[in-house]
Structure to design on (616 residues):
């Protein structure tokens, strides 16, 4: 098993109902043109006992209504909306915006389409100056943001017209149950946008807008109910950056009722996903609301009545990546520890795109560390072949409000295949273990460090691992903790790989696409208010203590954890005489390890393995 396995993999995403109640989805594989770099190729497919491709050209975000299957495809580098007639023939392009579209929703009767677009806005040429008077000015995977807010347009009778134009972006849109208006979300001011705060509105087809609720926190996952109500996910940042979402129901009378609370959506880490899947609330044929929630290392489907009765609706051995009601049947895209997304129905695997491609992989062994404070830290260990004792990598997830669990992490299996054990866990700050557990509350590098090192000591005592050959690695928050641990415990680790990390909160505040709001929500400080907190929580303040040979991995177009973070850490370690190497990747952003160009993903994995082989 080598890193080149990535070229052979296939991915399923964007599951939705297709004609005849059959599952419709996006099938992605990797093309390797003779004289060009490898690239992902996404096409539409349906399942009726076997897979049938519906398109040969690029197609994403499918939706079926009436006589057409709708999808998006890039034209002149921007996405446009197409529709494919069920009667046969070529797909028809139905939008021509210079800025393309950023989302669409077809009305219940299929006669109208709501479009999220910036219209005919054209950004300055790459060599021209840009002028901004708001924030953010950039976003990861998108680059510099356009100066034109995202608008809501209405397409009908082959003509598009603007329906909602605001000073802030329209964020999300959905038709109401009868199709005579739309719900949408947007921030009410620049300050609300800076703080991840939205409001919910309703707009009629005549353009009349009513504000419904909001102004205290994020709102998303809008879903109309047949009785004229609305369900959605929201909270008010009551517990800072670790606040869990709540599922609400707003009746036709305007009264709002709490239905459930939890770590909604799938926050389990995986590097085996290309594309998206429906995880937000959907009303099923039985009238219950279905939504994905992360719980104890697995993302499961939750069924909730409008009266607030809650129960799991999927087995814990399946990690739900997406779901759709096709006819009256529920289909899911499901992962587990050893498989990427597969098409499943009622616990049965219908289609595995990687059957015969992925080798038989071992399921990691669960390990639970009982902390002195009384809580349990769930984790896993992957052991290579042979008796051991094995060199081991403590691998730390990103977020921090995500989790490891029942989803395939291909890179960890590759480390194991190369002879390295991998230990990984969900310290405090991770999702899926309740509100008190997920809230770090300005204790970065404190309670999470205790859990990580306590778990490491636990598995070193329980498994055939070599305590003299331990490495630490991770990306994003995991990169921050790699820097932090090697600085705080200079003799503990024989090697480190810090990937898309943070080392300096003071510079992160202004350089990251989420810097001001993320920094304040996590640490409760700003550069001009309690700057000592930001410095004390910066690994850079302790960099003089680092002795661990460190590989620094960073992408040049990473706007989430900007490359100055990696540059600074590399430069300081090099100047101090610590063995270090900088693996710097052009044209990629924060998602390199999960969605970067395939050859660059492979080069990154090989750089990790070379470093571990050299120092472990």
């Amino acid at each position: 098993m080598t890193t080149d396995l990535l070229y052979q993999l296939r991915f399923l995403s964007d599951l939705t109902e297709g004609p005849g109640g059959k599952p419709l989805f996006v099938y992605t594989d990797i093309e390797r043109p003779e004289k060009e770099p490898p690239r992902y190729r996404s096409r539409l497919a349906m399942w009726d006992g076997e897979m049938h491709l519906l398109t040969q050209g690029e197609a994403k975000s499918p939706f079926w209504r009436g006589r057409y299957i709708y999808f998006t495809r890039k034209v002149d580098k921007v996405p446009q909306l197409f529709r494919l007639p069920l009667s046969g023939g070529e797909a028809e392009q139905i939008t021509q915006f210079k800025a393309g579209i950023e989302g669409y929703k077809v009305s219940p009767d299929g006669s109208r389409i709501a479009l999220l677009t910036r219209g005919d806005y054209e950004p300055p040429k790459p060599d021209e100056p840009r002028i901004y008077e708001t924030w953010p000015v950039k976003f990861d995977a998108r680059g510099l943001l356009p100066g034109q807010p995202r608008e809501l347009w209405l397409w009908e009778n082959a003509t598009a017209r603007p329906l909602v134009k605001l000073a802030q972006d329209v964020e999300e849109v959905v038709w109401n149950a009868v199709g005579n208006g739309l719900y949408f979300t947007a921030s009410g001011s620049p300050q609300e946008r800076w703080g991840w705060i939205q409001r919910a509105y309703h707009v009629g087809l005549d353009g009349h807008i009513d504000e419904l609720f909001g102004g205290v926190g994020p709102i998303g996952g809008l879903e109309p109910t047949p009785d004229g109500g609305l369900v959605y996910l929201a909270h008010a940042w009551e517990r800072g950056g670790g606040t869990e979402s709540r599922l609400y129901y707003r009746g036709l009378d305007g009264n709002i009722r709490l239905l459930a609370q939890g770590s909604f959506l799938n926050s389990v880490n995986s590097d085996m996903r290309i594309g998206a899947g429906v995880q937000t609330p959907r009303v099923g044929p039985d009238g219950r609301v279905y939504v994905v929630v992360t719980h104890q290392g697995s993302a499961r489907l939750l069924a909730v009545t409008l009266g607030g009765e809650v129960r799991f609706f999927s087995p814990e051995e399946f990690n739900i990546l997406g779901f759709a009601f096709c006819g009256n049947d529920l289909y899911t895209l499901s992962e587990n520890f050893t498989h990427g997304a597969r098409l499943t129905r009622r616990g049965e695997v219908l289609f595995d795109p990687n059957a015969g491609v992925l080798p038989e992989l071992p399921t990691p062994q669960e390990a639970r560390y009982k902390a002195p404070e009384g809580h349990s830290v769930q984790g896993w260990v992957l052991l290579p072949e042979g008796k051991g004792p094995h060199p081991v990598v403590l691998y730390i997830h990103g977020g921090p409000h995500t989790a490891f669990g029942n989803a395939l992490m291909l890179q960890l299996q590759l480390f194991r295949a190369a002879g390295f054990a991998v230990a990984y866990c969900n310290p405090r700050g991770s999702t899926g273990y309740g509100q008190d557990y997920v809230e770090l509350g300005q204790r970065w590098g404190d309670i999470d460090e205790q859990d990580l090192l306590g778990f490491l000591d636990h598995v070193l005592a329980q498994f055939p691992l070599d305590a003299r050959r331990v490495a630490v690695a991770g990306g994003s928050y995991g990169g921050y903790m790699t820097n932090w641990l090697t600085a705080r415990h200079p003799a503990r680790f024989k090697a480190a790989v810090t990937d898309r990390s943070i080392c300096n909160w003071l510079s992160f505040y202004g350089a990251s696409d989420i810097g001001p709001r993320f920094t304040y929500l996590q640490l409760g400080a700003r550069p001009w208010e309690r700057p000592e907190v930001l410095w004390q929580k910066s690994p850079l303040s302790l960099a003089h203590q680092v002795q661990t040979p460190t590989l620094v991995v960073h992408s040049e177009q990473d706007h989430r954890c900007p490359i100055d973070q990696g540059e600074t850490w590399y430069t300081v370690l090099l100047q101090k005489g610590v063995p270090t190497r900088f693996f710097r990747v052009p044209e990629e952003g924060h998602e390199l390890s999960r969605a970067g160009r395939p050859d660059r993903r492979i080069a990154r994995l090989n750089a990790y393995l070379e470093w571990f082989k050299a120092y472990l």
The first strand starts at residue 11 and ends at 17. The radius of gyration is 24 Å.
